[in-house]
Amino acid sequence: MEAILKKLNIQSQSPGLSTGQQSWEGRGPLLESYSPVDGQRIASVHEASREDYDRVIQKAQEAYQAWRQVPAPKRGEIVRQMGERFRAYKTELGTLVSYEMGKSLQEGLGEVQEIIDICDFAVGLSRQLYGLTMHSERPSHRMYEQWHPLGVVGIISAFNFPVAVWSWNAMLAWVCGDVCVWKPSEKTPLTALACQQVIREVLESNEVPEGVSCLITGGRSVGEWLANDVRVPLVSATGSTRMGKAVAEAVGRRLGRSLLELGGNNAIIVAPSADLEVAIPAIVFGAVGTAGQRCTSTRRLIVHASIYDEVKERLSKAYGQLRIGDPLDEHQHVGPLIDTTAVESYQATVAEIEQSGGYFVVAPRVLDGPGYESGCYVAPCIAEVAPTAAIVQHETFAPILYLIRYETLEEAIAIQNGVPQGLSSAIFTLNVRESELFLSQVGSDCGIANVNIGTSGAEIGGAFGGEKETGGGRESGSDAWKVYMRRQTNTINYGTALPLAQGIKFEV
Fold it and tell me: Would you name the residues annotated as active-site residues?
């Protein structure tokens, strides 16, 4: 790890603020980063003070004045070069993601691949920021619409995807002509610093204005500064529903824009015709991947009564084969939770399941002994619960899967939709009528609905996000770029008269 940190230019005490080409230590308290893998301190940074924050925002505002005038294809070319840099540092950055956050090495590398993929997407997008032309009702008039950048975009990211979600926002915002101020999770500051180091050479060699890519490390106060700052027209926030509501309220109070990616409580429906050879691996990965700490993790499994016992038996066998340990060891399936606070949440949920009359098909436990010294390792578990149990309404960021029985597809869909969250959903079926009903307007109420694949593992080509308490935001692919821009309608009169719309007559 020492060699990787050195290559990524991460020192034992690293600067916690950056405007792309310059970095400095914040005047706030010291923030230590510890790995949940082995409990070891990795490095530390100084959090930002309010004075530090204002300095960064001012630099970002100055950069925006120049950056928005750079032609979009040229901005895309700079993002293309960033993608090449991330290709060159994929192994090192992916390993650091795994070590600082705790996800498996394959998932860490996959997260860096998401950065590379969104760079590729953004390059093409830089030549496709299309508007529309409209026919005017007035003679000798032409109408069209165009899109302009917003300005400073604030990005608040969560620990579970410490670099990918930043890139979804930043790469699109940059080709749109915006500048970005990133507040990473205080639990994973080093991966954010590493990203800034990776792209620094690109920014400098292309003489990109200092302040186009800014980083501010810190806790809740930094997020509150961004949310309340009228100089930041858009705040993109990823995290808990509680956090998202606070951000939305603050941004809405000043009539700014918020892009929210919040909690998920995702379900898979397993129909009688399901191909279980495909379904079981998808369920297990969805439930235990990233130790259940994805917003798209599978939380609820709704299984038809006719195959319920078989599915339960297969899952119990699959869980019995899971290997839990150091995520840098590619032979392990499941790594640690992010910290001991997450372990306490896991234990509290287990207690609530037991109190509500739930039955554990696969027992929960906190792991200790050699290899588990950090105190952050838990065993994935499966609990049979009633669909009406209060605990099912909540999202626990841990590998806990609820097993629920259903009789009719309409009942299964109602169970799936009967929670406050609405991010991801899936059905396993070989019946075309069932799959089409699930995808119809009376089917899944989630932003993502899949057939014969699990709830996690979205590609960057599609818009990512959910409904209800998930926040309604959309990031990444499709036309998600529009949230980073403002729409302008233009009408041009190239005639010699001034006819008014709706036939209004006005003479002076």
Answer: 261
